[in-house]
Amino acid sequence: MAPQRGFRIGIDTGGTFTDVVGVRSDTGQVFTTKTPTTPSDYSVGLIQGIRKILQETKIRPSEVTGVFHGTTVATNAILERRFENLGLVVTAGFRHLLELGRARNPGAGRNGSHFAAPLLRVPPEALVPPERVREVRERISAAGEVLQPLSPEEAAAAARWFREQGIGSVGICLLHAYASPGHEVLLRDAFAREFPECFVSVSHEVIPEPGEYERAVTTLLDACIKPRIKAYLDRSAGRIEEALGEVPFLVMKSNGGVSTAREVAKKPIGTVLSGPAAGALSAAYLGRLSGHGRLITLDGGGTSTDISVIEDGETKRASRHHLDEFVLRLPMVDVVTIGTGGGSIAWRSPEGRLRVGPRSAGADPGPVCYGKGGEEPTLTDANLVLARSPLHLAGGEVKLNKALAMRAMRQLAQAFGMDPLEMASGVVEIAAWNQAHAVRRATVQRGISPRDFALMAFGGSGPLTAGLVAEYLEIGTVIVPPFEGMTSAFGLEVVDLVNDHALPHLQSEEGLNLDALGRGFERLEREADEGLALEGVPPHRRVFRRTADMRYQGEAHEIEVDFPSGYLSPPAAASAIERFHLLYQRRYTYNYKGRRPAEIVQLRVNGIGLTDPPTLPLIPAGEESPEEAYKGARLVWFRELGGFADTPVYYRERLKEGNSIPGPAVVESFGSTTVVFPRQEARVDRYGNLVIRFRADVFEKRERAGRPTGWHGVGAAWG
User: Fold this and answer.
1) What is the DSSP string of 201-227?
2) How many CA atoms lie within 13 A of 175 on its CB side?
3) Residues 6 or more apart whose Cβ sits within 8 Å of residue 214
4) In 3D, which of 66, 58, 48, 49 has the Cα closest to residue 4?
């Protein structure tokens, strides 16, 4: 059921805090709060967050028209590697599919001698050992022809075998099941009869695409997390109904959309890595609203930083992603993640160099300044020692102990024979270099110049380092949105319902059959339309997006290309193929146009149920001087100024349109802190964004001086 206009609640459950955003759809007024996350039962923190924001806003439960939820439960369940109760059904002869894995060889197909992957490698540990893999005698060709039928008796015997072994979660992945799913359906039905309490995932429903290894891994992970996700969503839905009555409960997915909790429970793997997707979508929406269509996001959290690229106001998508050592083949918002966040630990490597991350203090014990037993200094401790962060977080709910942070920083500094303040500054600068390198991976390595974009920074730690990251990359503009500490939670308020449908479809551009291509897209659109109808989306709010995965003949890596809706004419198809050549050229700096035919490998359709995103109200206009927002001043350490400098501090919530804040300055809000560095100036736009720009001559001086000012006393580490 699609939510109606009214008071909508977005809840993003993180490792330490659960962020809550409430939006009045009619006025666009935004309310924010935080509540501690409850790892023993995440649904407790969720309902506490709902009750807290209702209490603070005086909103009646009957006024709530939808709850949107983003969660890391699925991601955490995989990272905890609880796979002991997991089994797999495969085609006979493929028992060792998981152990063999896939030799990652991006160069194969371009020439016979180039291998990008090492010949000797240690494969990841198999999700399921061979003794928990059951083979069944059946065979289907790549074209979907049944070469050897699967007998109902063998399917039933397989289900009974898992029941006898006490294996409660099973993935079914038969060879070429995406082309003809009948045998997988036969097995699923056998489990329903013989072992109904078993949680079963079938590959043609999870990922109906070629590539049996990725299909098996993704299907197994879906089966593995099903019990936990279903129980969590059931508890959450029950608590929400008890508190609010019957309201839509929608859950964020990694593809950039939401679905009902009931649908998500059927394929929970779709929620993995959905948190970064919400942040990227929020940034895209806020960028479109304020006239910034080309953005690089810097979403700095407690353990990691997520980076995405937005062009023409839209996020980019990817069809595969790495989580830990597992390759997931799922449509998702394209995000690059590194282990640099507020809780990242600063440490001395065996080579005698300073490193920041990827090890993290997490939520428990957390940074040293939390006073919960942490001993190794973190990025949060460094910012506190430099007085860039306040002595509390979350509006005063979390007190920080600066003396403990200084003591830990002093101990690290002694290992290098350095001053603790110099060391703290180095920790911040190396963290910023790590983030800048990740931005390069997301841009330069894909044929994009970061100088052509603005940097949008949010999250608890992103705005603290964004000014340095932008300087290192020569990005001239940094944008820090309102409610920057809860941007991902706000992103839950602006997403549509999105379902993905895919169909293998191999055709060369030479002799392209447009009728077959059109029929494939139409079939997927019918499936997408039926799915949206089941979720309660009215017909006038259903739209469809067509894309195809394309590659050059002989290659194994694809690029997703947009195709037009409706009748597919020869000029329209030719235009799409030309777009593939251009995208390939942009990513790899060359293409094979005219030398090697392009191929269509996979058709995709996104079924989109449009929701009504809020329109943010304009903030009041003010004078150039932000006197009304002035909180006071404190001594803050900046390398550019040779040490501590008297630095003004401002309340973010009291800033007005037109206010100008020259650096150095600190802007504090409920969920985050923004540092305006020397040589920078921030202005407040009509939506409350902090738009930070560099002085005109900063990059010219850098060009003359060579490398940007940074800290290299013990060697910067590229996360």
Assistant:
1) EEHHHH--SS-HHHHHHHHHHHHHHHH
2) 21
3) 102, 207, 320, 327, 328, 329
4) 66
Identify the sign of the CA torsion 521, 527, 531, 537.
positive
Amino acid at 409: M
Cβ–Cβ < 8 Å for 95, 133: yes
CB 152 within 8 A of CB 173: no
Q: What is residue 417's DSSP assignment?
A: T
Model pLDDT for residues 656-684, shown as the tens digit of each residue: 999 999 999 999 998 899 999 999 999 99
pLDDT tens digits for range 323-381:
767 888 888 898 888 888 898 999 999 989 999 988 888 777 889 999 999 999 999 99
Spatial CB neighbours of 161, under 8 Å, sequence gap ≥ 6: 134
- Distances, alpha carbon 706 to alpha carbons 451, 687, 701, in Å: 17, 37, 8
H or E segment to which residue 87 belongs = strand 86-91
7-77+229-271: CATH homologous superfamily? ATPase, nucleotide binding domain (3.30.420.40)
Helical segments of 72-181, H only: 73-79, 97-100, 152-165
Q: What is the CATH number of domain 497-609?
A: 3.30.1490
Return the bridge partners of 68, or none.
10, 250
β-strand partners of 633: 648
Alpha-carbon span 691 to 709, nearest angstrom: 22
Whether 474 contacts 702, CB under 8 Å: yes
Dihedrals φ, ψ of 212, to 5°?
Answer: -65, -30
- Beta-carbon count within 10 A of 350 CB: 5
Do 297 and 436 contact (CB within 8 A), yes or no? Answer: no
CB-CB contact of 613 with 493 (8 Å): yes
> What six digits make up the tokens of 207?
């990922």
Where are the domain boundaries for CATH 3.30.1490 in the chain? 497-609
> Which residues, listed in sequence order, are joined to residue 23 by a DSSP beta bridge?
8, 30
pTM for the structure as a whole: 0.85
CB 224 within 8 A of CB 78: yes
Tokens matching residue 8: 């909508």
What are the pLDDT digits (tens) for 146-188? 999 999 999 999 999 999 999 999 999 999 999 999 999 999 9
Sheet containing 7-13: give its strands across. 30-36, 17-24, 7-13, 64-71, 249-252, 258-260, 497-508, 598-609, 542-552, 559-563
Identity of the amino acid at 566: G
* Residue from 370, 184, 285, 145 nearest 689 by CA: 285
Residues of the chain with CATH 3.30.420.40: 7-77+229-271
Q: Kindly tell me the burial class for residue 592, based on how many C-beta atoms sit within 10 Å of its own C-beta (0-12, 13-18, 19 or more).
A: middle
